[in-house]
Design brief:
The complex is a heterodimer of chains A (168) and B (519). Chain A is of the alpha+beta class and 168 residues long. Helices cover 18% and strands 51% of the residues of chain A. Chain B has 519 residues and is mainly α. Chain B has one domain: Up-down Bundle (Sodium/glucose cotransporter). Classes of the chains: A alpha+beta (168), B mainly alpha (519). Strand 4 of chain A pairs parallel with strand 1 of chain B, so a sheet runs across the interface.
Chain lengths: 168, 519
């Protein structure tokens, strides 16, 4: 078991199954495992001087530790929990590289939203590695290919993973 | 214009500046952060209105009115394409393109084209074409801003244009255009009320559509025809097809810049906001054209048809309302201009400068490149708008024709045709752009009765198909792209509801989990 910082789970196993069950008539969904996906989370103070005075905002950014993709992110609750090692996905990205990507992305994203071409002052306020829970669910139906779905344990949103051909 | 109009114009700007000033103060910081983070804290109605405020441009207020005023009911062909544009866009490429673009990790649409059609030339050609033609679109906003300002203030056009261009460049440089949800909401609300008011006042003044049509029968019955004034487009289905295509699918060719956001709640806001936007579009898209048509009867001797909507407002609305509505319209024009300028800045710095001239360029250098380019566009745009100002309608139709012809087949085939390869895409982009450009500049459209958009699109599609098929052996589509395309397609046995409800934003994570699953 390893203690990790996670984004607080809102969707439990029953709810995750329920979400998929409602959309997949005739299939039987079953949870296979719960995986924890790694992100670097950075909170920046972003300041630009404008004719209306200095705009200062806090902008959180999250970097996917596997594929380096950056996004802005809503506020979220965090909690430390103990998780089986095999259910934790290991990140590949180094912190400095993630920080560079995050800063660059924040400048791009905020400039576009603010419609401003002023180079900002950026200060890192907080940082952490956080893990997001995903339920991995397999859906079976007699005589058909099975398929796997991942359900976000925070929002309940899901994405289809693949068709499992051997089930036929 | 009366001094009351000017006073209320000033009052309006004072209110907007006041909201902007309030928004940068501490008390409104949460609002600004909410706006930046996908508008989740401001609700669907404000989000929808904010989107509308940024998408309304000088075209709607000057170009569409002018089209209605000069051609009569023929202009509705353009409106019909515009109404269906969003739906066609979403259903043909929207969903698949968003999915493929996320799988490939593209942040600008030009980056997406290069990822799908791997070659440096793809990015260079797409980037240069975009920057060149977006310049014309900005030019249309400059002219719109200058003309509107001249009409409202009574200043000579060259002074009004200088002020309009100066303000646009200045606020882009000095901190953005009060880009806070509530100012956009306020402006959007004023525009909605304004457009509805102008439309209703004009219709009421003329006594309804039957009276308007009777008046046309006396002035010139051909205004009532689907072939335009003087039956100028009679039997020219090539022109009709182009007019409908231009805003229904032409918009798909527009380059765009995306930002990613990770929601921590089920983002119902986006869906509801989309519904509000669509309803608003249905009404708003047709109104400016119809006001232009009504203006034929209200102001039959208008010198500049582009000022049809402004002039109808000036004639029929109380001066105070005219001042406020005109200010909102001008603000919309300027707001569109700075969005496009920033788009040009991003494309030129990220897709051209960093990619081809300085791979190690840091963010500060990229901002400098964007600033220099935007300043150059401002200066060149001012000179062109001053010396030979083309019509706003003509510029927007021209720009959309060329961009649509250049990029539409490349975008559509990127997700729908697995054989679409790099040589096919490059020749399609170049061929489509050149044909649409030359077709208009050399006035081939008048000689052949075929719209430049229609001609450009046909050439672009043919080149994409023929060149791709001829070069399948020498330039096969890379396997990783075929795999990404297969991912973007629906998944066999999986229930349709499930496929439709799947969340694109989780694609990157899904890809990684799939890889781990296969190991």
């Amino acid at each position: 078991m390893e203690k990790i910082l996670t984004i607080k789970q809102n969707i439990n196993q029953i709810r995750a199954i329920d979400i998929i069950d409602n959309l997949s008539e005739y299939y039987i969904p079953q949870v296979q495992k719960k995986l924890y996906y790694p992100y670097y989370w950075f909170l920046f103070k972003y300041s630009v001087k404008t004719i209306f005075g200095e705009k200062t905002i806090r902008v959180p950014c999250i970097i996917d530790m596997l594929n380096k993709q950056a996004s802005t992110v809503d506020d979220f609750e965090r909690e430390f929990i103990a998780v089986e090692q095999e259910n934790i996905i290991q990140g590949k990205l180094k912190k400095l590289e993630a920080l560079k990507s995050a800063k660059s992305y924040i400048i791009h994203a905020v400039m576009h939203k603010l419609k401003s071409l002023i180079y900002p002052e950026i200060e890192l306020l907080e940082e952490n590695v956080v893990y997001r829970p995903f339920w991995i669910i397999k859906c079976d139906r007699s005589g058909y290919n099975s398929f796997k779905v991942m359900v976000d344990g925070v929002t309940g949103k899901f994405q289809i993973l693949n068709i499992v051909k051997e089930a036929k | 214009m009366s001094p009351v109009v000017t006073i209320f114009l000033v009052v309006y700007y004072a209110i907007v500046v006041g909201i902007g000033f309030w928004a940068v103060k501490k008390g409104a910081a949460k609002n600004l952060e909410g706006y930046l983070l996908g508008g989740r804290q401001i609700g669907p109605l404000v989000t929808a209105m904010t989107l509308q405020a940024t998408s309304m441009s000088g075209y709607m207020f000057l170009g569409a009115g002018s089209a209605g005023y000069t051609t009569g009911y023929w202009a509705i062909w353009y409106a019909s394409g515009d109404i269906g544009g969003g739906v066609v866009n979403l259903s043909i490429i929207g969903r698949r393109m968003r999915k493929l673009s996320k799988i490939m990790g593209s942040l600008t649409s030009i980056e997406y084209l290069e990822n799908r059609y791997p070659a440096a030339a793809t990015r260079l050609i797409a980037g240069l074409l975009s920057v060149f033609f977006l310049f014309f679109y900005v030019l249309a906003q400059f002219i719109g801003g200058g003309k509107g300002m001249a009409l409202v203030t009574g200043l000579p056009y060259w002074v009004a244009l200088l002020i309009a261009v100066g303000i646009i460049i200045l606020y882009t440089y000095l901190g953005g255009y009060f880009a806070v949800a509530w100012t956009d909401f306020f402006q959007s609300a004023v525009m909605i009320i304004g457009v509805v008011w102008i439309f209703s006042a004009a219709l009421h003044y003329l006594g309804g559509f039957t009276a308007v049509n009777n008046a046309f029968a006396k002035i010139d019955p051909t205004y009532l025809s689907i072939w335009g004034k003087g039956l100028g487009y009679k039997g020219q289905w090539g022109q009709v097809a182009g007019a409908v295509l231009i805003f229904s699918v032409g918009y798909m060719g527009w380059p765009h810049v995306v930002t990613r956001h990770m929601a921590m709640k089920d983002p119902k806001t986006a869906r509801t906001a989309g519904l509000y936007s669509t309803i608003w579009n249905l009404f708003f898209v047709t109104s400016p054209y119809i006001v232009g048509i009504l203006a034929i009867v209200i102001l039959p001797n208008l010198k500049d048809p582009e000022l049809a909507i402004f002039s109808v407002a000036g004639k029929l609305l109380p001066p105070a309302v005219t001042g406020i509505v005109m200010a909102a319209i001008m603000a919309a024009i300027m707001s569109t201009a700075d969005s496009i300028l920033l788009q040009v800045g991003t494309i030129s710095s990220r897709d051209i400068y960093q990619r081809f001239f300085n791979r190690n360029a840091n963010d500060k250098q990229m901002v400098m490149v964007s600033r220099l380019l935007i300043l150059s566009i401002g200066i060149i745009g001012y000179i062109v708008a001053l010396l030979r100002p083309p019509g706003v309608f003509a510029i927007v139709v021209f720009t959309t024709s060329v961009l649509g012809s250049a990029f539409l087949p490349a975008y559509v085939c990127a997700v729908w045709w697995k054989k679409a390869n790099t040589p096919g895409a490059i020749t399609s982009m170049l061929g489509g752009a050149i044909v649409a450009f030359v077709w208009k500049v050399a006035a081939i459209d008048s000689a052949t009765a075929i719209h430049p958009m229609f001609a450009g699109l046909v050439v672009s599609i043919v080149l994409m198909i023929v060149v791709s098929l001829l070069t399948q052996k020498s330039s096969p589509v890379p396997k990783h792209i075929l795999k990404a395309m297969e991912e973007a397609e629906s998944l066999g046995d999986i229930p349709k509801d499930m496929v439709n409800m799947a969340e694109f934003a989780l694609n990157a994570e899904a890809e990684e989990i799939k890889k781990l699953d296969q190991e």
